[in-house]
């Protein structure tokens, strides 16, 4: 049983630029909107979606808390296994403990970039609850 607020923003937008050079992510946390854009490095749209998500998430947090992508993996088994996106996120706060690595996963339904955003939020959801204002 969880007490207090839960960090669970709604994904409003996940949109690659028409030229494919950046991706925009917009999140809505109880009417508080955060929008971010990340440049695509090479052809890594998944990584850009995750980085944009971290920048958007940071807008909901105190300045002393930072979130950064450690890794992104698109996993697709041959045969009957599910297609998933696995994300590692580093959470750094002002406390004495070092960075904390959190893992998130999301099954790809229709769009890999949306799955990457969901996996990033999955990694952060429970851990960021203490930073959500009441």
Describe the structure.
The chain has about 130 residues and is an alpha+beta fold. It has one domain (about 10-130): 2-Layer Sandwich (Double Stranded RNA Binding Domain), CATH 3.30.160.270. Helices cover about 20% and strands about 40% of the residues. It is built from two helices and six strands; from the N terminus they run βββαβββα. A hairpin with a 2-residue loop joins strand 2 (about 20-30) and strand 3 (about 30-40). The relative contact order is 0.22.
Unreliable stretches (pLDDT < 50, length at least 5) are none
Percentage of residues in strands: 35-45%
Helix/strand/pairing category: alpha+beta
Count of domains: 1
CATH superfamily grouping: Alpha-isopropylmalate synthase LeuA, regulatory domain
CATH architecture classification? 2-Layer Sandwich
Top keywords for this entry?
single chain, Double Stranded RNA Binding Domain, three-stranded antiparallel β-sheet, 2 helices, 39% strand, globular
């Amino acid at each position: 049983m969880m007490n207090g607020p839960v960090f669970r923003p709604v994904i409003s937008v996940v949109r690659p630029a028409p030229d494919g050079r950046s991706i925009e992510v917009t999140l809505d946390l109880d009417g508080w909107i955060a929008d971010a854009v990340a440049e695509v490095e090479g052809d890594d749209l998944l990584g850009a979606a995750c980085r944009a998500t971290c920048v958007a998430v940071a807008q909901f947090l105190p300045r002393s808390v930072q979130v950064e992508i450690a890794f992104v993996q698109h996993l697709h088994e041959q045969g009957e296994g599910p297609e998933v996106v696995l994300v590692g996120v580093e959470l750094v706060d002002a406390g004495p403990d070092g960075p904390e690595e959190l893992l998130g996963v999301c099954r790809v339904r229709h769009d890999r970039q949306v799955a990457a955003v969901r996996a990033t939020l999955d990694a952060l959801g429970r851990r960021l609850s203490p930073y959500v204002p009441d």
